[in-house]
Amino acid sequence: MRTDHQSLQAFVVRCLQRVDVSESDAVTVAHVLVSADLRGVDSHGVARLRRYVDGVRKGKIDPHTEAAVLAETSTTAVLDGRNGLGQPASCAAIDIAIEKALETGLAMVTVRRSNHFGIAGYYALRATRRGLFSMVGTNASPQVAPTNGASPMFGTNPIAVGFPTDPRRPFLLDAATSIVPRGKLERLHREGRVMLPGWAVDPYGRSTTDIPAVVNGLKAREGHALLPLGGLGETYGGHKGYGLATVVELFCGPLAGALWGRHVYGRTGAGLGHFFLCGRVDFLRPLEEFQAEASQMFDELRSSPKARGCDRIMVAGEREYEVEQDRLENGIPLRPAVIDDLMRLATENGVSGPAWQEGSTPSRTQAGGYPLAVQDEWS
Amino acid sequence: MRTDHQSLQAFVVRCLQRVDVSESDAVTVAHVLVSADLRGVDSHGVARLRRYVDGVRKGKIDPHTEAAVLAETSTTAVLDGRNGLGQPASCAAIDIAIEKALETGLAMVTVRRSNHFGIAGYYALRATRRGLFSMVGTNASPQVAPTNGASPMFGTNPIAVGFPTDPRRPFLLDAATSIVPRGKLERLHREGRVMLPGWAVDPYGRSTTDIPAVVNGLKAREGHALLPLGGLGETYGGHKGYGLATVVELFCGPLAGALWGRHVYGRTGAGLGHFFLCGRVDFLRPLEEFQAEASQMFDELRSSPKARGCDRIMVAGEREYEVEQDRLENGIPLRPAVIDDLMRLATENGVSGPAWQEGSTPSRTQAGGYPLAVQDEWS
Hints:
Chain A is of the alpha+beta class and about 375 residues long. The first copy, chain A, is about 40% helix and about 15% strand.
């Protein structure tokens, strides 16, 4: 079944208001979550709503607070998320970064004491719409082992980089610094499929393909771990992925003044950190020239020789843009388990569910025949 | 045989002065090149000197020019390298970025019409010594295929990120966005060893392990290509490495106003672009607090459980720091082929060579027993 994005957003707002989140914060969260569903990053969309609602209900997330600016200069600001929802704090942060960057050329804003903020790309896109390039990152619950290690020490630490290459379809890289997220393993298991060697390690640091052991080990924090981009050891550049994950952790933890590494999601709350960097393209190059050359570069990439068996070369953000166009028009397909969970949430909170339309559940293949094989690997 | 770094630097200066490079520019190039040899990034050290000397001699690089500031604001500057040596232009750029960042909190400087600048990490470290975090990148001759592609469209596009975590031993990630550089394939071939599947593709985009075919294909730009970090296709995140390479290319090409993609090293010269971003840690977090927490994070990483068969977990920049300490004390070991080439350069240019000491040639194992398996993969 499918639902349209407005109906889904309105449902998210209703649920969050029932646990005492203000209307404006609820709208913000709804917008960020549903933008993930629209873009095909299903793992970071409304499938996460229960965690937010339950998190507030259990007192883990403060629904009443507002992010506070602890310090600022003309190019920087330090925000305290005060353990509120991650999305309102992060929208405040990127908007401050945008205004400062428009004024001075460059800006960086950090957030500490925050919670899950959704997809990093949402915030990067908010800046590209204003003609800025942007870089956004967050730390996350520990799941990824360092090179030569056997225990989860970092989150999947996504990083998003956006450029205002095309106002309608900006360049957006939004990628976890691990090879795959835990959610992908859970999905493969649900579908009766296998995981590949080199994605995760057992408590001895050896590659494993035992999905239940990995997923349960990660949940229990008992010594299974995902591997960083580049994989096991250094043969395929695993130390580079580990290095990138460390960069994100340094920005989001020690620099932002947030928790980091194994300490996030501890007794004092999630304590996550994020960073938001923006810069003016037009201080370095006239925007039209930049856009014309980026467009030519992308055209050359797309029309360059294809590997045998491949009929298309894409640019980061292109697939998600196409999925979004399709889902804006035809509605958002959700998995039966997600629909069931949303309807349970509706009942539990005494609100009406989204309006459902008949339609196929999400398939791994888009209408155009292009496989969405990694739609939930991007962040 | 070994030589000490001062003798090697003086030799580089002598050679460059013979092709009419000013003493101060020659000293700058010598410093950057030898810093690569000191840090164990042998592929980017004096082994490259011939290309610079011959490049100037053949009129491909202008020895007399000086980088010009085309535009600047309080946070940005745009430099034209005017086809001079990459190192003086890049030192000028990072120094402008450092001064602006110290003043305003954040700064970004781009360079266009430049040449090979050595290791990106050299410039990042220059900023960390001033208490700044930094990000530096460059584009390069086309060698890397996009995901689903079969032709080289980007360079190995290294990115370096530095943090002033410890004044003596700062955090430094300095990594090509490809899995391996071409130089690694050449070295393996020289040593009679094999390359692994998944590092490079043939003209049909299929993984190949035929080193001569790959190396010759890359040199002739005839359809062999290296693969981005994450490898072939999307299974292990190749699209993420491709995305990172694109990010570096966008900063260095369209944003910097330099050549990009297949157009670099064309008829008008290398036309490379670089970018240099710096920021003040202490505008976001007191430096001492940042350093204390980063240090604790690194200690936790190092002491976390090891994978079976591994006795050490490191942090980016640690291995290079240790190699540097060893080579500062015991001299820099060079391969016989590099020594021969340097001595030929000495003869050709009518200058005396470096002073050689007896000593082992570079091995893959450091005194401490830690394998230097990837010392030249980092950039």
